[in-house]
Design goal:
145 residues; Aminopeptidase; 4-stranded antiparallel sheet; 3-stranded antiparallel sheet; 4 helices; acyltransferase activity, transferring groups other than amino-acyl groups
Length: 145
């Protein structure tokens, strides 16, 4: 079930974020993860609309969106591949009318996930949003595959 998240959920969401990042972002150094974790918890969570996926009373993942972009999508590693990510994307497309996302180029699992769901690369940036040398792919939904 998709529900709007609140700041009371942030401690659980940041732990999901960390487990997911450690499972998919092998290009990030430990220090980068520590810095990002603090930024996300203390700043970024407050700048996006967050929805959580809850099953049997447990939060299994979340999506954070801005007016026109999916800013974050993270799922408990053991629940990946079970349709939660697809449910978040369908929600973003159909309910929020958001069809764009930026993805770290080195996160090949995420790039493949979005492309499988019909997103195509529009452009590429050499640096991420923090100015770090982690290239971003800017994707836009084109068609449902």
């Amino acid at each position: 079930m998709l529900l709007k998240a609140s700041s009371q959920d942030f401690p659980i969401l940041i732990e999901i974020w960390e487990r997911s990042v450690r499972a998919t972002h092998d290009f990030l150094a430990e220090q980068e993860i520590i810095i990002l974790k603090s930024l996300i918890l203390n700043e970024y969570f407050h700048q996006v609309l967050i929805h959580k996926f809850v099953q049997d009373g447990r939060i299994l993942g979340f999506i954070g969106t801005s007016n026109d972009n999916i800013e974050m999508l993270f799922i408990e590693p053991e629940f990946r591949g079970k349709g939660i990510g697809k449910a978040f994307i369908e929600f973003a497309l159909n309910e929020l009318k958001i069809d764009q996302v930026d993805v770290n180029e080195q996160n090949t699992q995420a790039v493949g996930f979005y492309q499988k769901l019909g997103f195509e690369v529009l452009s590429r940036s050499e640096l991420d949003h923090q100015g770090k040398p982690y290239p971003l792919l800017h994707l836009k939904f084109k068609k449902l595959c």
